[in-house]
Design goal:
The protein is of the alpha+beta class and 250 residues long. The protein contains three helices and 13 strands, in the order H-H-E-E-E-E-E-E-E-H-E-E-E-E-E-E. Strands 3, 4, 5, 6, 8, 9, 10 and 11 form an eight-stranded antiparallel sheet that branches.
């Protein structure tokens, strides 16, 4: 007859522990196992390639827009030139006379120069409107006199004769320059003119731009006991347009 086996009355020192709240003696459920082995969520940073692609797209669109604007401006400029054929104004000194020139013993200069300037508008459809013109007469870098010409409007295809008088009073010269002016019977002169002018096309007026004119190669006699004769240089002057773009002047 087989022997009977009776359970031990001693308690188990290491009883099975429930997994994540499972009941005693029961295996853990599938959800408990998954929650125990699942890693915590960590947000992933966005890839840099998407940001870089967005920046490249913006730059590409900006360049394309700039190219389109340049092309449209070039087309508009070509159409304007084909229709109006614009030319810059022309200037020349028609008559010049040194009416007075005195240098005192202390080197003080007093002078007066009378001159006529001819301004020509070679355009057939464009009208020029000028600001007052500042006029300076120089000889060897010495300012002989300053004056101005009033503002005026010049119609298309005409020549306008402008009269000006320049003078200097009380200007102090060094001894060498004063002696040279006293001894000279005639002086080489330069005439500088500075102004701003705009263009009128029908009812449209453009913004005024700077114009600088230089007339050189002029020689006039210095008056002594009697009035000096007038000279008629007649040569064309150099005209330079000063176009300002933002902070730069071209």
């Amino acid at each position: 007859m087989a022997d009977r086996v009776y359970p031990s009355s001693k308690p188990n020192p290491h009883p099975p522990q429930p997994l994540n709240g499972g009941g005693p003696g029961f295996p853990p459920t599938k959800s408990q196992v998954n929650s125990a082995t699942r890693l915590p969520y960590r947000p992933q940073p966005k890839p840099r390639s998407s940001r870089r692609g967005l920046c490249c797209s913006c730059c590409l669109w900006f360049i394309m827009l700039l190219v389109v604007l340049v092309i449209l401006a070039a087309i508009a400029g070509g159409v304007f030139y084909a229709i109006y054929r614009p030319h810059r104004p022309a200037f020349s000194v028609s008559v010049l006379r040194i009416a007075a020139l005195n240098v005192s013993a202390a080197g003080h200069l007093s002078s007066r120069v009378d001159l006529n300037v001819t301004a020509r508008n070679p355009n057939k459809k464009l009208i020029y409107f000028y600001d007052p013109i500042s006029v300076s007469v120089l000889s060897g870098g010495i300012d002989i006199g300053d004056g101005s010409i009033p503002a005026f409007v010049q119609d298309a295809g005409i020549a306008t004769v402008l009269s000006a008088t320049t003078s200097s009073s009380g200007q102090t010269l060094d001894s060498a320059a004063g002696n040279d002016l006293r001894k000279s019977s005639s002086l080489p002169l330069e005439v500088d003119m500075d102004t701003k002018a705009g263009v009128k096309i029908g009812g449209l007026k453009t913004k005024k731009i700077g114009i600088k004119v230089r007339c050189d190669g002029i020689r006039a006699p210095v008056p002594k006991a009697k009035a000096s004769a007038a000279v008629s240089p007649g040569d064309g002057c150099k005209v330079k347009l000063r176009i300002k773009i933002w902070k730069w002047t071209l």
